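Hello, quick one for you while I still have it in my head. I'm working through a protein record and want to make sense of it properly. Would you mind checking whether the tokens look sensible for this chain? I owe you a coffee for this, so here goes:
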Amino acid sequence: MPSPPPATGYRAAFGADGYLVREAVLDAAECDRLRTSVETVSATVSEHARRPDAGPSATLGDGHRIQLSARTAIQWEWNEGSHAIRLLEPCDHLHPDLAALFDDPRLTDPVVDELGRAPAPFTSKLNFKRAAEGSEFPWHQDYPYWYTAIGDAAQDVITAIVFLDDAIAANGALRVLPGSHRDGPVRRDPADPTRFLTDPSALAVDTARTLEVPAGTVVWFGAFLVHCSSPNTSAGHRRALLPSWQPAGRERLQTFPYEFTRVEELP
């Protein structure tokens, strides 16, 4: 088996395109079970976050709301007055079905091919795009967000998106720029108040692909792939789980402090 790569150079994960798609990784019964699990998590976290002694809330530079509660960071939907959860990170401690994804060989086999044997958990996310309410996520790379905590080691992280619902253009299917991972950190958008999003003028957006895939599909990609998703304008939810791995022997993301000013070290 290959040894874990050093944290130097740009990872060329998953060939020319920078991502890997496999349909029918999970069957219908497994998707149904996970949908039930994530709705249980959503309800529990929402109730916990409304308690008088719940964790603190903050407004980010772009005006979006975040709250720390139940040992997770809750990103609330962007619409004023919305009580819908947009994203939870980390989430694997919230339900055993979510934690089990880190050890599922159907998910880890492609990761082992890239990172070496026994890849370690890095972080986990639960993404909701609620019917008619789920907001967009503009063009970005994962790398700048993680760089502020772990530096260059962020390039070795690989994420899987496990789609629990059919993903179509109308409900915010993932959009990717094939090959964008080969350029390393892409110039950030000077108009973005958070300083993390990718500058659209630096992108060949005419090459974008919309990955319309059925429930049970998994998409793997590395930290440099440029991707985005549109709002959910449909009548159905689009839910997904996102476990991320790193080479063996490394500590999880949540053990490191964020130094958000470090993003200014990037292009």
Notes: The mean pLDDT is 93. The radius of gyration is 17 Å. The chain is about 15% helix and 25% strand. The domain at 19-29+87-250+258-265 is CATH 2.60.120.620 (Jelly Rolls).
